[in-house]
Write a structure and sequence with these properties.
Length: 291
Amino acid sequence: MNNLKTPAKVQDGKEAVLQQTNGFVAMVINTNISAGRTSQLLEESTSKLNGALSRLASGSKIVEPQDDAAGLAVATKFNAQISRNNAVQNNLSSALSYSQTQDGFLQKVSKALNRMSVLATLAEDETKSSSDVANYQTEFSDLQAYISDIGTKDFNGVSLFDGEDLNVTLDSDANVWELNDSDLNDEEIDDVIDNSFSVTSWNTEEVLQDAIEDVATHRAQIGANIQRIQFTQEQVNVLNENLAISVSRIADVDVATESTRFAKYNILVQSGTAMLAQANLLPQNALRLLR
């Protein structure tokens, strides 16, 4: 018989030689091709089983960067935008509290001006004695001081009524919007809190009406601020929700699908382990010929 040596398939970069005789594979001891192939398949199944375990344990499809490099980049970018949007929400909440505080004080100013207007009307009654008018003036002066004091109030160190521009962050790209300002030191209010202005001044009613209208305008502007801030908060919430859904599609594991894969690879590992044990026993058959 002619003994021929032909190259076998390359396994893990190493070339094995099978001895063939008349087309039949010879029985050898040094090279166990079946065990090598089975070991490679077992290694692949074990790797996939470990991957399935990691994904199920973490709840993420992307445990290692190589799992989905492009998806990881997109998810990372979206997560960063979500974080910035959360910061925007904090800024908007602060701006909302600021504007609501402004409106709360302006309500009190409006109430004080209305009372001052009543006092001025009562003081015009000529049946009132000078003592009565003096009493009206006392209350009138106290209300003037009250309005003047509100004009100096601040929110976390930021003046509420100095008329300065205040910018609010609108989105994760750092775009800003300028709030409608409110100035309680403008001409109309200045006329009311002026020391020379009294309950019996000749133009008391006219000055107070102008001030009441001015405060109403301020409240309308602040109301517009509050409305836009609330709409912006809703917009950012919707954006964050959609971004979170996008990240979930990319990164979150489908437990049902992954559990099926886990069961499959678990079976393959167990069967591969059993077959490797059998393959490792094949060379022992050659020993029987030597007995």
